[in-house]
Amino acid sequence: MADDYEAVMAAAVGPLLATLDGFEQVQRRLHPPELPALRAAMKPVGQRLASGLDGIAAASPPEALRGFNDQLLAGGRSLAEAFDLFCSEAAAEQAIMQVLASMGAFTRSLEQLYPLRTFPPLGRFFVEQEFHDRLDELDPEPREGVATGVHLGGDANDRKARGGFALYVPEWWDGSAEMPLVVALHGGSGDGRGFMWSWLREARGRGFFLLAPTAQGSTWSMMGEDIDGPALRAMVELVAERWPVKRSSILLTGLSDGATYSLLTGLTEDSPFTAFAPMSGVLHPGNLERGNMQRAAGRRIYLVHGALDWMFPVETARWAAGQLREAGADLVYREIDDLSHTYARDENDRILSWFDASLALPGDGEKNKGGNET
User: What is the pTM of this model?
Assistant: First the structure.
């Protein structure tokens, strides 16, 4: 790498990684009263990113690195768009939609940057710290006939298309080993293509298939005809036909509407799911009407809720925990003191250790901070 281009990269990559980390912190701490403070914390980070991107745009990379440079610039510009959307002031009635648009741009930047993961600074971002010294093992030479990486079902050219899915298979998978499957359901107005990134880092290192479907409508079919349930089960079967899914370890998890729907559809008679981890949702009354509460007996459920949740107050989760226990569910209830109505990415570790012992990291059994478990 030429010295001048190396200097440009050094000036750009640090701010880019800091902005990626900043957005992960923002996602975890999203709470309406905290928006001004979160914006203030992000502004200096985003300003350094803008300066670094200017350097990349003006650079003359070696011929062999032109594709890398262009891809890095594209991902950086999506990240800058996310920053601009998040930090721009908006009227109260528009603020939530603007934040959601910002998070959409953030996940788009992740999609653009992930192909550059063999560049070690980005490679470390896309996997847990325990695997930072094993990056070469995570990306071996492709094996002929072995389908790994990110796969998009449905209209891959239309990010707004409904009813498709995103599937991730760790790049180091050997083509034959059986692995658990995690199925992750997005929240209202979301999509699987974006929500997949909430779990990909763990899947890449620990080793599990990750399926992130997209609802056929703007959210999951919790009212009227259940059009998403049959489609969801068909997706699971499609994955299991092509890849060796460990049938005894299929986790259904989700956020908000995805959490609510995970139990509503997952506790039906023909469900392939062996464990559930709903986060920031509610216990839908349809569970009573469909006989799901009788089928909850003995089922493994890891229920997560935030004490600061402004959409579904924590009392709804405490009531749901009581109902599930009364029904005989094998329940873990985690109430997190500083969590609002957002995804607690730092809970993934505990969920995976609880779900399947083969996915636990060393020392996971000792971790129980930042919340109350019952």
Answer: 0.95
